[in-house]
Amino acid sequence: MASKATPDKPVALVTGAARRLGRDIALDLAAHGWDIALHYRNSAADAQATLAELRAAGAGAEAFDADLADEAQCRALLPRVVQAMGRADAVVNNASHFEYDSVDTFGYAAMETHWRANTAPAIVLAQALHGHLAPLGRQGCVVNLLDQKLWNPNPDYLSYTLSKAALEAASTLLAQALAPVLRVAGVAPGVTLLSGPMNAQEFAASHRMTPLGRSSTPADVARTVRFLLESPAITGTTLLVDGGQHLTGQPRDVLFLASMKDR
Q: How many domains are contained in the chain?
């Protein structure tokens, strides 16, 4: 089975790729000609299982553990990928910290935790990819996973939302600063997977609350990430993949609205 990267195939570093949405993104890219650098933090068993799936699909794939909230580990990640796989062409910033707080419970620690997990690593990894590709005269792409709630704001999950808002702004600034070597774009999903205390009934109800009567699936998001990676004229913008959820004004996070609707 394949493991090391194939010389003529592009390599994408997908953060948080051991499980959930990151796994789907990695598998979709592998099925369409990409080799994968699979990043994980604590999910070693899941990482090995996904790694086996990627290799079975014919992709060159290697796993890399790192705590992206640790600046030294984050800065070392892309050089490790290049050393092991011979190249790096794209970064998909999928890994994310998602914990509830509000205006009433907000504190510096919560904000810092979200910033260090959701915002700063994407900037550092873009720096590193640019530094790798520029001397080679090659171009690459960074795709940042955002959230539709930036276009449909409510004050729930305050620190998480602020960290994603900062990442959306950073995407624009990085697209300006790192062109023409890097393109930088975003994907903003809607309700894609069960998370937090949401149950299956509330998850289904949240999908019915969108204009299209459906929200994003992992396959929808993965397809959009791949589209951006393979679209050389797109940079500095975000594609919303949410069934139109961002068009509906919602005063609370969909978790709470779906909970009330499901009763």
A: 1
